[in-house]
Design a protein that fits this description.
The structure holds 2 protein chains of 2 kinds.
Chain A lengths: L1 H6 L2 H50 L1 H5 L3 H12 L4 E7 L16 H10 L6 E10 L2 E11 H53 L14 H84 L8 H32 L6 E5 H19 L2 E4 L6 E5 H17 L5 E9 L2 E8 L6 H7 L8 H4 L9 H11 L3 E7 L3 E8 L6 H5 L1
Parallel strand pairs in A: 5-7
Antiparallel strand pairs in A: 1-3, 2-3, 4-6, 7-8, 8-10, 9-10
Helix pairs in contact in A: 2-6, 6-7, 7-8, 8-13, 9-10, 10-13
Chain B lengths: L2 H26 L8 E5 L5 H7 L1 H11 L3 E4 L4 H9 L5 E3 L2 H10 L2 E8 L5 E2 L1 E6 L14 E5 L5 H13 L8 E5 L2 H9 L5 E5 L6 H4 L7 E6 L3 E2 L2 E5 L4 H12 L5 H9 L4 E4 L6 H11 L4
Parallel strand pairs in B: 1-2, 1-3, 7-8, 7-9
Antiparallel strand pairs in B: 3-12, 4-12, 4-13, 5-11, 6-9, 6-10
The chains are: A alpha+beta, B alpha/beta.
């Protein structure tokens, strides 16, 4: 794979491309030069031939007349001196060879055969120049041209040219590769090395900027990028340290919070247990007080004076109020301690509401306001009837308590989310902040001002909300100051028990 | 006799001897009374070649004769013979035929003769190519025969023609053609430009020929008797002393290394003494062929 990678490397590709381009170009040039040289040599040879042949034919007549073969031989020798000429002869008019000189290796028989049959090879040509004098045919100068030497020469030249071009290819290729290496490959390799370092996480890698071209700008961008990454990496590292410290702190805090929560829960539990215990301890003497006060009120052991009778009424009333408070505290404490238990049963909510409205109607009449029950077609719900009655007593009582004029209306409505029973009044109303405060135990919105005006422990709404939550439902308050308040009890659909209601 | 007397006698003897020598020289001067010597060489070869071959001989003669020596030739036999007829040359190298004419018509006497290839005599011959299939002279009837030089060529025309006549072939029985020179006649024969060729027998041994053709492919179907070689002749009126001096100078050449070099340059191996009667045989042949030297 490494070898294949090397084969397809930029360097090898470039060398291959340059070599191919140079080789093809120079080979074509060499071939063209070879052809041109061959053509020139042929033209030159043809010119020489014509010159020699014509001239010899021109000067030969006298020698032919006198059979001056020695002179004719000299003419022929002059022609034969040309290396491209295989042989030259002068023949008489009937074609018989007159001259005696012949280059080595060529016999008279060879010449006669050539003259009779033509040359035997493609590279040999016969050129004839007729010798005449006054129109009389005296003979012929026959020149046999051998192109083989010329072809050998041009072939040799071609080889030499190819060798020269090979040297030029190597030289030019080396120069081009050197320039390419200097200007392209080296910067690219530097970038690769830099990128490799970056991939290994060494963001301090710096690539040398050796050129001012695109690669140079790329190197500058790379350096800028790595420096930026380095800085950001450093900042990230610092942030990471900070985060780690933060996490450490948060873990510590969480542990502290967890401990605090544990402590608070333990404290709350202890408080609830304490309150439960205390409530129980308080209820026993309170029941005794109330019992004995009622015995006195009913004068079982003898008549009381009017004044004492009023005193016993006060004792009974205060005792009952105190008992109610203690019970409420006990219930809330149980809820918070997780020990409050519901006794669910199918309850006809219409009957329950009717009962509560009937009970509270006297109180409403006492204040001169109307208490209207506009519920209808109420479902039978599986709830703790006693606690639910407490809830209705609380919220209807509160409505009557904080309504001076107007009316208190109980109505119901159902939707796909469940069953809703609302108690709305035309009382003093609450602000949103007061609504939130009203749902906290021992808080009464109008406590500071109204506690004295409106009796109560401030536990009612909180208790009711907790009861609704225990049933899986919810208590919500909407109110507008000086216009009135609506408290809605929402029961989830699964509390419905139509079958029970039907039975 | 004292020493003074001896010295006096010695001076007197020197003066007398000098006077005798001066008188001798003064007596001889009329006999050498020419301003310059003109040497003519017949155009046996190309004129330029001829001038080159005999240039050392000219210098040799000039140096030893003490007078300017001018070397001349002609472009062909006709031109040469015309010069001879005008008696332009003092010392002339002829062929045998030309000599006989000049001897008779222009008063030239033979002085010496050539020695070539160590031979003092030369034969005329009839050449044929082996492949032609001619083996005797009679077969040449109706054929073409090429002769070297021209009708004045002794060894290349007259003697071969004499041989043909001897064989019964008369003029018209064959076609005559003439090559520029005897070697060319042999070369033409070899190249079968004719059925036979007439030339001196020595021609087949000339490097000019042996360097070009395989002479073994040539047959000599007739060879004449050996005849005296090419002559050198002088004007008859030249002083005898000069003639003798020139003869001596020529004959002495083969005795020295320097002389041999001169001979070698002239394609010769020596000069030999000759007299007019040596060429009677040639006269007879010419008589037979051409009806005499006229």
């Amino acid at each position: 794979m490494a070898v294949l990678k090397n084969i397809f490397s930029l360097r090898i590709k470039f060398i291959a491309a340059i070599s191919v381009i140079l080789a093809v170009t120079l080979s074509l040039t060499a071939m063209y030069g070879h052809r041109a040289q061959e053509r020139l040599l042929l033209e030159s040879l043809d010119e020489r031939l014509r010159s020699l042949g014509t001239f010899t034919a021109l000067i030969s007549p006298e020698s032919l007349y006198t059979f001056d073969i020695t002179t004719l031989d000299r003419f022929v020798e002059q022609i034969n001196a040309d290396p491209d000429i295989r042989y030259a002869v002068i023949t008489n008019p009937v074609g018989g060879v007159i001259t005696t000189v012949r280059p080595n290796g060529i016999t008279l028989e060879d010449i006669n055969k050539d003259l009779a049959d033509g040359p035997r090879t493609d590279h040999v040509h016969l050129e004839r120049f007729v010798i005449t004098d006054g129109g009389e045919h005296l003979g012929t100068v026959v020149i046999c041209v051998d192109l083989e030497r010329m072809q050998d020469l041009t072939r040799q030249n071609l080889y030499e040219q190819l060798l020269l071009y090979l040297a030029i290819i190597v030289f030019l290729g080396s120069v081009i590769f050197f320039v390419f290496h200097l200007n392209v490959l080296r910067p690219v390799y530097s970038l690769i090395a830099g990128a490799s370092k970056v991939s290994e996480g060494r963001y301090d890698a710096v690539v040398p900027v050796t050129t001012s071209d695109e690669l140079g700008r790329l190197a500058e961008c790379f350096n800028y990028m790595t420096s930026k990454i380095s800085v950001e990496q450093s900042e990230l590292h610092d942030l990471n340290d900070v985060l780690l410290k933060e996490i450490e702190i948060r873990k510590t805090t969480e542990m502290a919070l967890y401990d605090a929560k544990e402590a608070a829960e333990n404290a709350s539990k202890a408080k609830s247990e304490f309150l439960a215990s205390m409530s129980h301890e308080l209820r026993t003497p309170l029941n005794s007080i109330i019992g004995f006060a009622e015995m006195m009120k009913y004068e079982i052991k003898g008549p009381l004076t009017l004044e004492y009778r009023e005193y016993t009424d006060l004792i009974t009333c205060s005792g009952r109020l105190l008992l109610e408070t203690v019970n409420s505290i006990l219930d809330i404490a149980k809820i918070e301690a997780g020990k409050f238990e519901l006794y669910r049963e199918p309850v006809s909510m219409g009957a329950l509401v009717d009962e509560v409205v009937t009970l509270m109607d006297v109180q409403a009449q006492d204040k001169g306001i109307a208490l209207k029950n506009e519920t209808h077609d109420m479902h039978c719900l599986v709830v703790d009837s006693m606690r639910m009655k407490q809830v209705f007593l609380n919220i209807i009582g509160n409505a009557i308590k904080f309504t001076n004029t107007g009316e208190v209306t109980v109505y119901n409505h159902c939707n796909e989310l469940g069953h809703n029973i609302s108690v709305t009044d035309t009382g003093i109303g609450m602000s949103p902040d007061q609504i939130e405060l009203a749902l906290k135990p021992f808080s009464q919105v109008h406590g500071t001002v109204l506690t004295r005006r409106f009796q109560g422990t401030g536990l009612g709404l909180s208790f009711s909300s907790q009861i609704m939550k225990l049933h899986g439902g919810e208590l919500t308050i909407t109110s507008e100051e000086h216009k009135g308040t609506t408290v809605t009890l929402h029961f989830p659909p699964d509390l419905g028990d139509d079958q029970a209601l039907a039975s | 006799m004292n020493g003074r007397n001896k010295s006096y006698l010695s001076v007197c003897r020197t003066v007398v001897l000098s006077a005798v020598l001066a008188a001798t020289l003064l007596t001889a001067l009329p006999a050498l009374a020419i301003d310059a010597l003109t040497v003519g060489v017949f155009p046996r070869r190309d004129p330029a070649v001829t001038m080159k071959l005999f240039k050392p001989l000219r210098a040799y003669l000039e140096e030893n004769l003490g007078i300017p020596v001018r070397l001349e030739t002609a472009k062909d036999f006709t031109a040469f013979e015309a010069q001879v007829a005008q008696r332009r040359y003092d010392l002339v190298h002829f062929n045998q035929y030309q000599y006989l004419i000049a001897n008779k018509a222009s008063a030239y006497d033979v002085l010496a003769q050539n020695e070539e290839f160590g031979e003092t005599r030369i034969s005329g011959a009839i050449y044929v190519h082996k492949d032609v299939g001619i083996t005797d002279l009679e077969q040449l009837k109706g054929k073409t025969i090429i002769f070297g030089g021209g009708e004045q060529a002794m060894m290349s025309y007259i003697v071969p023609t004499y041989l043909l006549r001897q064989a019964g072939l008369n003029k018209g029985d064959y076609t005559e053609q003439f090559a520029k020179s005897p070697p060319n006649a042999v070369l033409a024969t070899f190249m079968r430009q004719a059925h036979a060729g007439g030339a001196g027998e020595v021609v087949r041994r000339l490097p000019l020929v042996t360097g070009k053709i395989d002479v073994m492919q040539l047959n000599l179907i007739a060879v004449s008797e050996p005849l005296p070689h090419l002559p050198w002749a002088v004007k008859r009126e030249l002083p005898d002393a000069l003639k003798d001096q020139m003869r001596t100078l020529l004959l002495e050449l083969k005795d020295t290394d320097a002389g041999k070099e001169i001979l070698k340059s002239a394609k010769m191996t020596g000069f030999n003494p000759a007299q007019d009667s040596d060429y009677d045989a040639h006269r007879a042949i010419i008589e037979a062929v051409e009806g005499g030297v006229d």
